[in-house]
Design goal:
Layout lengths: L2 E6 L11 H6 L1 H14 L3 H7 L1 H4 L2 H21 L6 E4 L3 H8 L5 H18 L5 E7 L3 H15 L3 E8 L2 E7 H13 L5 E3 L12 H11 L25 H8 L4 E2 H10 L2 E7 L4 H9 L4 E5 L2 H9 L1
Parallel strand pairs: 1-2, 1-8, 4-7, 8-9
Antiparallel strand pairs: 3-5, 3-6, 4-5
EC number: 2.3.1.39
Enzyme class: transferase
Keywords: Acyltransferase, Transferase
Length: 308
């Protein structure tokens, strides 16, 4: 039997007008955005359609992507397309928590709005940066980051293990720049600076982690109805670890390719990326040979999936 994983988009996947054609056609999608707008106190749909500047600010990006992902998730459920296991990249882990039954959408959308605010306050624009290091051994990247961090007494570390050949580092600007110089000297040929608003998943996000922890204490999580693979451990998340893992996740690296390996061990052969963009699909292609991969972000991709 084919086992299916749903993967949920993270920050950076947002785009102006995302899921607009699905909103126009399906009531379940439109009503999800309406509910989010009421809870957030502003017109989320209008922001997504017409305010690119705000859409790219972390505190607005996060509820926008989560709502888009959950709206599509609900549409898939109505068409009897369901997952056996779920995961998300960074912010996407909150959409995965909704999909797993552990967190209700209403709580999630308000929580990620706060998470986004805490993250942007912890590391304002210009404090840090993130760079993707291509085709370089993970242990070499870790070693150089640790050396630079110790010598400069600044933060630079691995933030995302996306694929074995794409690892992202993040931290304070000067330290990341120095690590890049040393990585090139050690043989790294391609380094790509990422267009993100902060050095996520590094120690610079500690203040956000502390604030998020106190917010999480107010939330009651339900039992999982589906296994969710944690970003932080790349293992199945268990009930009594949810709060501590979400607290750690903000400032610890995302172990995406290990998470996909865990899914394979659970028998997953089909991966469906739910929400804007195709970033996670492109990662899976590099991690899993001959995986069945689909994504759902608009009417065209939705129709393609249900007709497959």
């Amino acid at each position: 039997m084919t086992k299916t994983a749903f993967l949920f988009s993270g920050q950076g996947a947002q785009k102006l007008g995302m899921a607009r054609d699905l909103v126009d056609k399906y009531e379940i999608v439109a009503s999800t955005f309406d509910k989010a707008s009421k809870l957030l106190g502003y017109d989320l749909r209008s922001l997504i359609d017409s305010d690119e500047e705000k859409l790219n600010l972390t505190e607005y990006t996060q509820p926008a992507i989560l709502t888009t992902s959950v709206a599509i998730l609900r549409l898939l459920a109505m068409n009897d397309i369901k997952a056996d296991v779920v995961a998300g990249l960074s912010l996407g882990e909150y959409s995965a928590l909704v999909a797993s039954g552990a967190l209700d959408f209403e709580t999630a959308v308000q929580l990620v709005a706060k998470r986004g605010k805490y993250m942007s306050e912890a590391a304002p624009n210009g404090v840090g940066k993130m760079v993707a290091v291509m085709k370089t051994d993970a242990s070499l990247i870790e070693k150089i980051c640790a050396k630079v961090a110790a010598e400069m007494k600044m933060v630079v570390s691995v933030a995302n293990y996306n694929t074995p050949s794409q690892i992202v580092i993040g931290g304070e600007v000067a330290a990341v720049d120095q690590a890049c110089v040393e990585l090139k000297e050690a043989g790294s040929k391609r380094l790509i600076e990422l267009n993100v608003s902060g050095p996520f998943h590094t120690a610079l996000l500690k203040p956000a982690s502390v604030l998020l922890a106190s917010e999480l204490e107010k939330i009651n999580f339900s039992n999982f109805s589906l296994p969710l693979i944690s970003n932080t451990t790349a293992k199945i998340m268990v009930q009594d670890e949810i709060k501590s893992l979400l607290t750690r996740q903000v400032m610890e690296p995302v172990r995406f390719y290990e998470s996909i390996s865990t899914m394979q061990e659970l028998g997953v052969t089909q991966f469906i990326e739910v929400g804007p963009g195709k970033t996670l699909s492109s990662f899976v292609k590099k991690i899993v040979d001959e995986a069945k991969i689909a994504n759902v972000e608009d009417l065209e991709s939705f129709n393609k999936l249900i007709q497959a």
